[in-house]
Amino acid sequence: MNLENLYLKLKHWQLFLIFFLSMFILQIGMIPTLILSKEYNYLGIIIGLFTGLGVLLFLGWFYFIIKGLDKKIENQNLRIYKKYFLYLLLFPVLYLTIVLSVLPQGFTISTEGSTVKTIWQIFIIPAHLFSMFCIFFMLYKAAKTIKTVELQKKVTFSDFAGEFFLLWFSPIGIWILQPKINKFVA
Fold first, then answer.
1. Which of 56, 45, 42 is nearest to 3 (CA)?
2. pLDDT in tens, 75-91
3. Sign of the CA dihedral with 131 first, then 35, 26, and 94 last
4. Is the Cβ–Cβ distance between 89 and 95 less than 8 Å?
5. Residue 32 CB-density burial (10 A; 0-12 exposed, 13-18 middle, 19+ buried)
6. Cα–Cα distance between 56 and 23 in angstroms, integer?
7. DSSP state of 20
8. Helical H runs in 10-84?
9. pTM to 2 decimal places
10. What is the mean pLDDT of the chain?
11. 55 within 8 A of 76, measured Cβ to Cβ
């Protein structure tokens, strides 16, 4: 079974457990890492890698919704999936992995001062904004794909706003949307 089918055929409770138990375990595992990170520099890399893996697991759901359900859209003109969506998935993962590996304690940029040098801010701020764009764009396209598969017609944001917010607030949305996705894939 490939990864796409696995994501789309998992039951809502299985997906919830994978996402939120992995994040819980990650948080518990990072506590000693953060405490010891001043003594051991390489622990930041561990934080970055685990966070990147968690984000990849979660954003992979959006990606596979778009890619997998796009095949269920009968009208070729309504198809949503494009190959560049893979880059939109990987950019936030790489961004978080790199930033948290280099700055495991986090960073602050405000009008009162900053914990990172100005040269880093030149890279961090646009990368952070682009990462947020990637996440919201994937969320938008995943919601649009779900509703397009359901209605098999061109949809506007008002048609799929419910799906958009359910994906955004995924701890609730998983319970409502994943059974619907399971029906489309079956």
1. 56
2. 988 998 888 899 999 99
3. positive
4. no
5. exposed
6. 12
7. H
8. 12-36, 43-70
9. 0.86
10. 87
11. no
Alpha helix locations (H) across the chain?
A: 3-9, 12-36, 43-70, 85-102, 118-151, 157-168, 170-185
Residue linked to tokens 């940029």: 109
Question: Token pair of 135, please?
Answer: 């996440």
- Of the candidates 93, 75, 72, the one whose C-alpha atom is nearest the C-alpha of residue 186 is 72
Reading the block at residue 173, the tokens are 């949305």
CA distance 19 to 174: 10
Strands 113-114 and 109-110: antiparallel
> How confident is the model over 19-47, as pLDDT tens digits?
888 888 877 877 776 676 666 666 777 77
Identify whether the C-beta of residue 69 lies closer than 8 Å to the C-beta of residue 149. yes
